[in-house]
Amino acid sequence: MNGTTFIENGQGRSRSGRWKGFFCNSTYELVYYIFMTEHGHFIERNKEAYEYEWNGKKHRYYPDFKLERG
């Protein structure tokens, strides 16, 4: 794997850091980002909410990432 990861201690057990300039809030995000980019997928940080309804109530979902479909 190429790139530099800077691990920063946050609250709790999770770690945050950067991979090739991309900030990740947790090691799970980091692993997912590395896997997707190393397999040729374009991935970026999601900046929008998606509304859905569940049990008669409206909710908003904020995914961590947005993928380019190709």
- End-to-end Cα distance: 24 Å
Run of helices and strands: EEEHEEEE
Q: Could you give the count of β-strands?
A: 7
The percent range for helix content is: 10-25%
Portion in strands: 35-45%
Structural class: alpha+beta
**Poorly predicted runs:** 1-9
Mean pLDDT across every amino acid position: 80
Read across the widest sheet, the strand sequence of neighbours is: 1-2-3
Largest sheet: 3 strands, antiparallel
What is the tally of helical segments?
1
Which short descriptors sum up this protein?
single chain; disordered N terminus; about 70 residues; 1 helix; alpha+beta; 3-stranded antiparallel beta sheet; about 15% helix; two-stranded antiparallel sheet
Detailed description of the structure:
This protein has one helix at 27-38; strands spanning 5-9, 15-19, 22-24, 43-45, 50-54, 57-61, 65-67. The protein is an alpha+beta fold. It is 17% helix and 41% strand. It starts with a strand and ends with a strand. The chain is built from one helix and seven strands, in the order βββαββββ.
Q: How would you briefly describe this protein structure?
A:
The chain has one helix at 27-38, and strands at residues 5-9, 15-19, 22-24, 43-45, 50-54, 57-61, 65-67.
Please give the structural blueprint:
Layout: E1 5-9, E2 15-19, E3 22-24, H1 27-38, E4 43-45, E5 50-54, E6 57-61, E7 65-67
Antiparallel strand pairs: 1-2, 2-3, 4-7, 5-6
